[in-house]
Specification:
12 strands; 17% helix; single chain; Pseudouridine synthase; globular; two-stranded antiparallel ribbon; alpha+beta
């Protein structure tokens, strides 16, 4: 199995790990034996507990508490929205240079789908455009709330779904042939996708250390698959990321 995480920060109170895409954050409710990051980290650092979670296909930063006191302190920061979370995402479409999407989200009964609905919970997503490549945009996203699938549904609601999103978008994968003129595969070969998961990466966390009360800022670079897409987009459109 590919490496499931890398350790970004460590002390006696907490860990911050950079989760690989395709890895569950916590045990599956229907299959407790399925590989997940919480069980893996606990085996390496006994007693470490995740304070929050990321969707399976989302990569990036997760906080684990190593003591009961740290877990309580960090959980309270999450509940009070004191933890600043920023993501990088690739969109299909061109939003405004910056904006706030403030639309309530509601989970559809007996499904894992979420929709914009006045009866839903308050949900707010702030974003800034980092770069555009033709009809594809790299955005930096700041979450003011942490609803299920919030980023995916909010951007879909303004006509800019994530570049790959089988549930809320229009594409199951992203291929080089979409942006490379005269692309050809070898004889009897099928083109392999550059990206076959939701291109969403939790790249930055800011929070108060539970013991020292000093503000910590932790960042994680983009994973290999998103870097590969950006590399090809830069070649095609001759732009650089800010």
């Amino acid at each position: 199995m590919k490496k499931s995480f890398s350790l970004t920060y460590q002390d006696e109170e907490l860990l911050v790990v950079n989760k690989a895409p395709g890895v569950l954050s916590v045990p599956d409710r229907y299959d407790s034996q399925r590989f997940n990051l919480a069980t893996k980290v606990d085996a390496l650092f006994p007693g470490a507990r995740p304070v929050h979670r990321l969707d399976r296909d989302t990569s990036g930063l997760l906080i684990f508490a190593r003591t009961k006191e740290a877990f309580k302190h960090l959980s309270q920061q999450m509940e009070r929205r004191l933890v600043e979370k920023e993501y990088l995402a690739l969109l299909r479409g061109i939003p405004s240079a910056e904006g706030i999407i403030d639309k309530p989200l509601l989970r559809v009964d007996h499904t894992n789908r979420v929709i914009v609905n006045p009866a839903g919970k308050e949900s707010k997503t702030e974003y800034t455009t980092r770069q555009t490549y033709g009809n594809i945009t790299l955005v930096q996203v700041k979450l003011h709330t942490g609803r299920t699938h919030q980023i995916r549904v909010h951007f879909q609601s303004i006509g800019c779904p994530l570049l790959v999103d089988q549930t809320y978008g229009f594409a199951e994968a992203f291929y080089l042939s979409e942006v490379k003129p005269r692309y050809r595969t070898g004889k009897n070969q099928e083109e392999r996708p550059l990206l076959d998961r939701v291109p969403l990466h939790a790249h930055s966390l800011r929070f108060m250390h539970p013991q020292t009360n000093q503000k910590l800022t932790i960042e994680a670079e983009l994973p290999k698959d998103m870097r590969a897409v950006l590399n090809q987009l830069e070649k095609r459109y001759c732009n650089e990321i800010d």
